[in-house]
Amino acid sequence: MNAARWTRLAILIAVSFALGACSTLGFHKKDKAAGTPPSAAASVPSAEVVPGPMTKEQVASELRTLVTKEIAAASRDDRNTVERRRPYYFKQYAEYPASDEVAIDFQERDSRTTPYSAEVNLPKVRYATRLHRVREEAATDQNFLRDTGNETISFEFRNGRWVRLGSLFHAEKVEENVNGEWLPVREEVKRTVAAEEQNSEGWFGRTWSAITGR
């Protein structure tokens, strides 16, 4: 009887010891897993590539690329598109025959918002119909007058890109197509877009002279 009691007691002690050992090992593994530091690659945040300030050469190169694109876009313009400048309707398109003669006057400024400015001068040929008060007449008009001269386009570099401010076209000669030959336009020809612009400036000049007495 005593032997049986001692045997059961020994078995209970052995089982208790085994359970305690398993519990201790389990908590040890859990603590070890929880305390494992993340890998070095995961702990380092991914670096963002921040572009540095553009050099003067890069800025000038972007302007040349922009001008090249504008010249290419002009060659794809629809020549039958009717435009409106109240109260007139007309059609016009442009060509840049010598894109290799583009001259760029590039200037640096003491300004953070607009550190650069530029004026681009290039040969230009503008074709425009006469002005019409009726849209249908402008749509069917295929008699274009040809203005040959130079265009000056102004740009400013803002917020990392070039912005076009405006342009001024100076026509050196105006011609009309007579029997397949371009001849100087006659004085009695009806007004064109270019003539209308010149007349507007003349009217403003005369008005300003009347006000100022100059």
Outline the structure in words.
The structure is a single chain. With 214 residues, this protein is of the alpha+beta class. The chain has one domain. Helix content is 39%, strand content 31%. The chain contains five helices and seven strands, in the order αααββββαβββα. Strands 1, 2, 3, 4, 5, 6 and 7 form a seven-stranded antiparallel β-sheet that branches. A hairpin with a 2-residue loop joins β1 and β2. The longest helix has 33 residues. The protein starts with a helix and ends with a helix. The C terminus is likely disordered.
Question: What labels would you give this structure?
Answer:
214 residues; disordered C terminus; 39% helix
pLDDT averaged residue by residue: 77
Uncertain spans: 27-34, 40-50, 198-214
Report how far apart the termini are.
139 Å
Rg result: 41 Å
What's this model, at a glance?
This protein has 214 residues and is an alpha+beta fold. The chain contains five helices and seven strands; from the N terminus they run H-H-H-E-E-E-E-H-E-E-E-H.
Set out the fold topology.
Layout: H1 2-34, H2 40-43, H3 56-75, E1 82-85, E2 88-95, E3 103-108, E4 116-128, H4 135-140, E5 145-158, E6 161-178, E7 181-184, H5 193-212
Antiparallel strand pairs: 1-2, 2-4, 3-4, 4-5, 5-6, 6-7
